[in-house]
């Protein structure tokens, strides 16, 4: 399930809804991303997440489909917020549920790594030095690259 | 065709979207970027570092060699930074 929204979300409520009624699930992995108050030595008072709505929905759906093809998932969820957020606010939540923990852990990490490099969101940080667009990180590309298909370990 | 600009490409060009009709001969993503670059100083500045620009054609990532047509929606943006 994909949700792109301005509103906050309740992790417990979302997880309960995701697994409700499915007793084949034995493992549930979840990642929640929060707004930090520092970036590269500058204090951040807030950030605004801009996105490309039509492409965001399409890319997140593709990423979720790919995860379901690679791992035996019983359920999955991606929630990503947009708009103005402050330090401590939740930005993103990814969850993967499977019969066993390994698929849940791996799929959760995969969803997050691919989302970071493929979903069209951009962060504008409000810092001491004014508003600045965040630069992409090469470490995110490296994290996503380890799931590229040629790697036999990625296909489960 | 419809062009969309996001993040600092929107700031630098001063546009979030526009409809354009490039001349014949502008048939690929790469040719479109080169044509856009010649439209004025804002575009020349915004497009000066091609490595820093990603392009999507009809909501899918595209390469410089990919074809474009009059009914396409083409988005220009920096590498993504969500999550």
List the helices and strands and how they pair.
The complex is a heterodimer of chains A (156) and B (83).
Chain A: E1 2-5, H1 11-19, E2 27-34, E3 38-39, E4 42-51, H2 53-70, E5 73-81, E6 83-85, E7 90-98, H3 101-118, E8 121-127, E9 130-133, H4 138-145
Parallel strand pairs in A: 1-5
Antiparallel strand pairs in A: 2-7, 3-4, 4-6, 4-8, 5-7, 8-9
Helix pairs in contact in A: 2-3, 3-4
Chain B: E1 2-5, H1 8-13, E2 17-19, H2 29-37, H3 41-46, E3 54-57, E4 60-62, E5 73-77
Summary of the model, kept short:
The complex is a heterodimer of chains A (156) and B (83). Chain A has 156 residues and is of the alpha+beta class. Chain A is built from four helices and nine strands, in the order E-H-E-E-E-H-E-E-E-H-E-E-H.
Report on the architecture of this protein.
The complex is a heterodimer of chains A (156) and B (83). Chain A has 156 residues and is an alpha+beta fold. Chain A has one domain (2-145): Aldehyde Oxidoreductase, domain 3 (Alpha-Beta Complex). Chain A is built from 4 helices and 9 strands. In chain A, the strands form 2 sheets. In chain A, strands 3, 4, 6, 8 and 9 form a 5-stranded antiparallel sheet that branches. In chain A, strands 1-5-7-2 form a 4-stranded mixed sheet, sandwiched between helices. In chain A, helix 2 (53-70) packs antiparallel against helix 3 (101-118) and helix 3 crosses helix 4. Chain B is α+β, with helices and mostly antiparallel strands and 83 residues long. Chain B has helices at residues 8-13, 29-37, 41-46; strands at 2-5, 17-19, 54-57, 60-62, 73-77. In chain B, strands 2-1-5-3-4 form a 5-stranded mixed sheet. The relative contact order of chain B is 0.28. The chains are: A alpha+beta (156), B alpha+beta (83). Chain A binds chain B through residues 33, 49-52, 54-55, 58-59, 80, 91-92, 112, 115-124, 133-136, 140, and chain B through 4, 6-8, 11, 56, 59-61, 73, 75, 77-83.
């Amino acid at each position: 399930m994909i949700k792109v929204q301005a509103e906050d979300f309740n992790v417990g409520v979302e997880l309960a809804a995701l697994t409700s009624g499915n007793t084949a699930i034995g493992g549930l992995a979840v990642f929640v991303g929060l707004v930090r108050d520092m970036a590269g030595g500058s204090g951040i008072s807030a950030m605004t997440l801009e996105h490309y709505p039509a492409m965001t929905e399409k890319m997140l759906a593709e990423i979720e489909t790919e995860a379901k093809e690679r791992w035996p998932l019983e359920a999955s969820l991606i929630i990503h917020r947009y708009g103005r957020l402050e330090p401590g606010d939740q930005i993103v939540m990814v969850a993967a549920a499977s019969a066993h923990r390994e698929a849940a852990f791996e799929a959760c990490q995969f969803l997050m790594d691919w989302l970071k490099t493929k979903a069209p969101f951009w962060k504008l940080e409000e810092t001491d030095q004014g508003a600045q667009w965040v630069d992409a990180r090469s470490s995110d590309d490296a994290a996503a690259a380890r799931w590229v298909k040629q790697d036999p370990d990625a296909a489960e | 065709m419809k062009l969309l600009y996001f993040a600092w490409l929107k700031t630098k060009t001063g546009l979030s979207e526009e409809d354009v009709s490039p001349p014949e001969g502008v048939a690929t993503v790469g040719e479109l970027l080169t044509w856009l670059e010649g439209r004025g100083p804002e575009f020349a500045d915004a497009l000066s570092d091609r490595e820093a620009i990603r392009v999507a054609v009809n909501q899918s990532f595209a390469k410089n060699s990919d074809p474009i047509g009059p009914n396409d929606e083409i988005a220009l943006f920096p590498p993504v930074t969500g999550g």
